[in-house]
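hey so u asked for the seq, here:
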Amino acid sequence: MRKITIDLNAVANNLAVMRKLVNTEGKVLVLGVVKADAYGHGMIQVARKLEAEGIDYLGVADVEEALSLRAAGIKTRILAWLHDPTDDFEKAVAKDIDLAVSSADQLMRVVKAAKAQVSIGRIHIKVDTGLSRNGVTMTELPDLLDQVLAEVESGSVTSVGIFSHLSSTGPKEDLAQIEVFEQALELAKAKGLSFELRHLTASDGTLTYPQARYDMVRIGVALYGLSPFSDNRANEFGLTPAMTCEATVVQTKRVPAGSGVSYGYLYSTPVETTLALVPIGYAEGLPRSASGEAEVSINDRKYKIHSRIAMDQFVVDVGNASVSPGAKVVIFGPNGPTADDLADAAGTINYEIVTRMGGRFKREYLGSIEE
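ran it, structure tokens below
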């Protein structure tokens, strides 16, 4: 009675769209971001599909995600960039995982791990160009570059890449960050340190700033057919949403005018009507904040979620329409509302909607690649 369908062929199509966009001139590699269970789409299944499509790199937040990909047989290059002080870098080096380095401490942990594995650590220097999250500051960068150069010359590590992340605040702020990144590149060059890969932009920056695509772009939300911008929709870029969320009506009942509906009587029926009960709630990731605002589609007709969204269910007033138990309810997907619509109703962004959907949903994959 609850189903999420992931169309991996749509993911492959979206990769092709973004590849075509960034390779109008020269050769720009594409890193597919599959962190957070591939934005809720299934990390292993998506990674296998991307690998079959010849993706250049895969990106994850942490080492555990990277090791899970290797355990599933994924051979594509993987970059992990968010590290806990106790993360097992030895396993990461042993499994040929690229590691972001944001501090001297992280660098020396990679060096120690590489020596323990009698191997060479593959690092990407993460520079904080203005997002003020992960990354080495421009003040500390010169010393870190000196240390990296020394370890490269000793054979402990190889400097694969240097990268940063835009804040997506606006053109003025983004362009200022691009300039800081250029300064970081010049500083590294002056110190004699070279990189195979310079990368800065995620989906939004890749679409907006062609001059900042460098050697590789990191594509996340666009892979899943969603726009990274709140004022644009995916189809404007030729992208196809990969996730569909559906349920079935489990009960209908005829009630008189003035009937209060669910917790707090957010809604009372204005006339005699039919109510339809749908077994999806915030335990499945449907935002409670969308109560009274979001719409769903039943029998190809849109209805507002009139009741308060509860843990397990919500109620829809379908009037006099012919709706029976077993009728399909599209929470978002083709021929229904979109993830963007639900995000707008909940006062959030499409990233959060797809990433949080789970709970008791059963999953089905189209276009799967077998192990």
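The first strand starts at residue 2 and ends at 7. The CA atoms of residues 115 and 289 lie 51 Å apart.
lmk if thats what u needed
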